[in-house]
Amino acid sequence: MEKIHKIKRTYINFLKRKLMYIGTGLLFSLLTLMPLVAEAQNRLNEDEKHTVTGVIRDVVGESLVGVSVVEKSTTNGTMTDGDGKFSLNVKSDAILVVSYVGYDTQEVAVGNNANLQIDLQESNKLLNEVVVVGYGIQKKVNLTGSVASVSGKKIASIPSANALSSMQGLLPGLTVLRNGGQPGSETSGIRIRGMSSTGTANALVLIDGIESDLALLNPEDIESVSVLKDAAAASIYGARAAAGVVLVTTKTGASAKVKISYNGSVGFNLPTFMPQRLTAWQEQDLINISRINSSIDPITGAATGAAEWDAERSSWVGNPNFSYRTNGQRWDFFQSTNWMDLGRKDYTMSTDHSVSASGGSDKINYYLSAGYHDKNGILKYGPDGNQRTNLRMSLNAELNKYVSANVLGSYQGDFKEQSSYGNLNILNSLYTARGRQPLLNPEEDTNYAINPYNADLQVNPIDIMQHSGANKSRYESFVGKVGLQFKNFVKGLTLDLNASRKADYFNQEIDKRLLAWPGKDGQGQRQSTGASNSLTKTKNYAYQDKLEALLNYNLGLNPHCSLAYKKDKFQGNLAQKRAIFEA
Asked: Are strands 49-57 and 115-119 parallel, antiparallel or unpaired?
């Protein structure tokens, strides 16, 4: 029996080995054939593809250049040439997606067609877009004047110091004037018809029908911006529209559930294209050359001037083993000071926060918002920053079938601070202070405890940043507007009555401190800021009251007939007080 079992086990093991060899062979054959099968499939697919050509035109038969033609669900695509023609290798069951700015996107089945003719239709969405044009609104398709518009969503999506800066490049023919990078003073106005006009020629900016500063508006509150660029605007706004008109419409509530939105950001601003200063020894060499060339012999034309320092003394500049020496009432300095590193930040920061709530029903809706902006400047010490606060409220109500009302209230606060010496003047000093002039006097100077800062050759910009005083300004604007609309008394006839008041308050306090830098051991005076110790306070206010009546009759088929009455009243006052103190 044992011998029989042994024969069985031997036979079973033999069968197992045979099956293993057969399975391995089949697997090897399968792996060998798979690439061949895949290659055959690819060749089959390639054989199914064919080249399709075509031309793309608009509704009047004009060829369209640069139209995007893409095989659906793939990255296989091309664009039309100067004659509106295209050529693309696609599968027989392919669908072409044809898209172009200002036209409806089309999907075209290729099938067995080798040549296609595709006519694109203009986008009704763009043509039906509503644009604010003076007293009322119109669809883009009905416009006859030169009007450009942009949505508030697009403006808010661009990170910038203010809404005015974000508009640069968004509208054709509109130029935003820039002052520089000082916080709160980045922009100064808008030019619509180029820069060739004389005088200021800034555009008239109306926010919800009230003249305001667009740079102080919270970008998140903007619904849309329209720019009236041609002379037709003068028929509505008179001579003040000579440089064009910018109409800003802010957001209002809607018949929907309560919606709360928050948008916040933190930005880092890096100074770019900042001129680099020479080293102290390079600067000294150029000063020597300029002194030699300061006098020219009129006959020979030879330079007859004298260098500031001889070659030996000039070689001491930047020598770490020899920084200064006495010279009567002065110190002779040979250091190498990087004033830009001492007084300028590597980057600045800005933060923005905006929160809003909106909602309502068919009868009444509301919109509430608050915004805050904070940005600091490039100077490393002293006051240099800007804060802006915005509050806005809008309420719309349908009182009955014949009367609707709207109420608008807003607050804008803009707060700036800088050195009383002037931030631009300080930046200029950082570039012009001599490189061999040190930040501080030698500690053995008897005047060191009183004023350690050195200003032997030029004023000391670091000392000025910290001790020259501050210039602080505070601008606040309050706007209130109430409107009533009467309708449905006569079909197509509406009467709008609006009354508003804009109150502006400006406060400024300039605290100037006299800084004087004596020579060695307090002898004489080498430099000073030149200003007396003084405190100047300025206050002014201005009111703008506006009454407006607009009678509008819709004749049907889009034409409108409008009759408007408007009255503006301005009043203001300026008060200034200045006190001078002895040092």
From this structure: parallel
